[in-house]
Structure prediction request, 433 residues.
Amino acid sequence: DTNMVRLFSLGVLALVFWYGLPTMVVNCQYLCDSVGPSSSLDHVSQYGVTFQFKESRTVGQFANGDFWVLGPVTIIEISPEYNSSTRTHGFELNPASYTQTGFDGRLNGWSAALVPALPLSISGNATLVKVISRDPNIVVTGNTPGLQTAVVLTILDMVPPKDGVLSFRPAYFGHSTSQAKTTTLSTNDILWQKSPKIRPPASVTAIPSLFNVSRNFERVWLDHHRSWTVINYHPLDNMPNYGADIATDTAEAALRLMLDDVQATQNGTCAMVRYLQYGIDVWGELVGGMQWQPNGGHMNGRKLPLLFTAAFFGIQQIYDDVHTAMNATLETFSEDSEIYRSPSGDVLFGLWVDCTIKGYWDSIASGNGNKACRDPYGYIDGTPHPGGFYQGCCTSMPWKDQVVALTLLPEIKNNWGNTLILEYVHRWVTFGI
Prediction:
């Protein structure tokens, strides 16, 4: 199918054409075209959101394009205005809860107490996240997203080096003392030598553009609710809605960033910056207590960009945080807990969440029910249609993208912490179910 062709176009060229020729390095003050110099302003506007200050303050942008403002600052108005009647267009200061939200009353875990009152005076280092809600008449249930977009404004206690244009934004989520919040990272810290710099043959044309990769990760990805209903949190303008699409997009972006033309263009360096920024945000979510627990396709795709970020910055603490979380529970990442080694020694797909032997046979008989229900006898992959559409759309196919990336970057594979996914994908590709 199309997904398989796209994966193997990248995967085959990656495995065959390992190292490309040396590339030039782009020398540009602003790595992303949306970034400009700092200035004194009484407001900041981005993606349809405006933060109005009581008085002019020094304002600048991070390397990915998100804004910062020098504190102390008093914010007197944010538009679109929070509507307490419809409970829409909310915002949070220093988001740190993975069970409650002040963004929109239709989201699971709504708490009006998390929406600060205006005017809001902020000093020190802080993060303000504002959302634009979708039409309040839309019923947010099932897979329906409730948010249109989200914007991050970071308050700093000092102007960052070079006005911040080479700096990464602190993680938008988590405790203020976490290393994801306090680590100061620059584009000069990117370890470009970690890339295999693959040169594709001229005959391969189905390659994602670096411009599209850059745009896919331009805006913040809100992803910090510990339930499959996080799908309702995902802003339509910012990120994919469903976890399987997150897994595909993050893996294909990682593969695209391993080609040999990335560092030579503004689109390439900007794509790398924004992808690493996403990895920093996932780091903040992880150390803030977030788990992407197994639930079919919903929670896949967060682990690879996190470890990719660890590799390309050389941050051992990220690897340590991943291993600590996995030692506490294998359910930290969906990819690790939806596959298992059966008594026969085979690595199979399936989980026990909300699943019984009766439930398994009911789903087989009806073709409905839990799509990830484990074979209770450990002979074949789970789901009502083993090897069928669900594994193709939502689990096995996106995992193949990830395994290609792991194969190309052994450092990530060595720090993955669970090699079952490698065995599973090898069996899936080579033998089927």
